[in-house]
Each structure stands twice: as C-alpha cells, then as structure tokens.
Amino acid sequence: MRCLLTAVLTLSSSVLMAQATPTAESHVIVVPPDKVTWSPAPNALPPGAKLAVLEGNPFEAGPYTMRLMMPGGYRIPPHSHPGVEHVTVVKGTFKVGMGEKFDPSAITTLPAGTFAALDPGVHHYAEAQGETIIQLHGTGPWAITYVNPMDDPRKPSP
What is the tens place of the pLDDT at every residue in 102-147? Predict the structure, then answer.
C-alpha cells in the first residue's frame, strides 16, 4: 500500500510540474505596478484620464485587460458598452450610478478591491473620488455609447 501511495504521489507531482512548466505556447504576462505604461485615454472618453493596456488590444476582437487612471472629480457621463464590462477598483474610490441621467444621489461607492460586472447595454455613469485606477477586462472590441450623443467627446464641436 505504501508503494502504491508513493507511486501515486510521485505521478501526481510530475503531472503538476509538467502543467506548471512554461512552454513555447504559454501565455504569460507579468506587469509590475512600476512597469505599467500610461498613455492618454482614447478620445472616446472625456479628456484627463490615462489608459494602460496590459493584455491584448481592446479595440480588436479578443481578450483584453486595461487600466484607466482618473484624476479626482473625473466623470464619465451615462453610457453603455456592447459587451460585458468587468471592473476591478485597483486604487482610490470609484463612484458608479445606474440610469440614463447623472444623479449624484444614486451613486454607489466602490472602494479599492471592489469587483463589478455590468451586462451589455446597461446604462451607467461614473465619477472618481481622488485619483482612481480601475482595471477593465473583457472580450473586444471595447466600445462606449453615450446615452446623450452631446456627451460624446468624439462629437465635433459646432
């Protein structure tokens, strides 16, 4: 019995080690906080935020992971996305409300460490309390549609 148990444990550890050993086909990405590369956020978002793409290309089909850094008071007007939006608050406080109009009295405060997922088409709005970083992941292409077209920063000025 002892020999059988030893053989099973040896085989199990060999299988686990084989699974943990990176191969040429492995997908391994490690981005320490001090190596995150920030750029201005795309013009689909109000000016003032910065974006860092950690994995994939959010604007093409396929999985992506990105972070959005917002200064205190930064607001994103009511909008929706065509895909599920997965949000993790990495730093600061992210305030989110649901609906077609920005209503500060209906905001839910999400402290660092909070995770949220919103279904496609859900109208919501957000505000950063202090410098805030959120991480977004999903399957691209990522897109944003504003409830009020006049809120869309891509719209040319009259």
Answer: 999 999 999 999 999 999 999 999 999 999 999 999 999 999 999 9
Contact between residue 58 and residue 140 where contact means Cβ atoms under 8 Å apart: yes
In the numeric block, the tokens 């202090």 are attached to 130
Domain formed by 28-151, architecture: Sandwich (2.60)
Query: What's the predicted TM-score (pTM) here?
Result: 0.81
The answer to whether residues 142 and 58 touch, using CB atoms and an 8 Å cutoff, is yes
What's the distance, CA 43 to chain centroid?
A: 17
Domain parsing of the chain, residue ranges: 28-151
Tokens 């002892």 correspond to 2
Tokens at residue 1, please?
């019995």
Q: Give the residue among 148, 96, 87, 86 at the shortest CA–CA distance from 127.
A: 96
Contact 101, 146 (CB under 8 A): no
CA angle 146, 148, 152 (to 5 degrees): 50
Rounded Cα distance between 141 and 83, Å, is 8
CA 35-64-25 angle, to 5 degrees, is: 85
Question: What's the CA gap between 144 and 155, in Å, rounded?
Answer: 13
Q: How does DSSP classify residue 129?
A: E
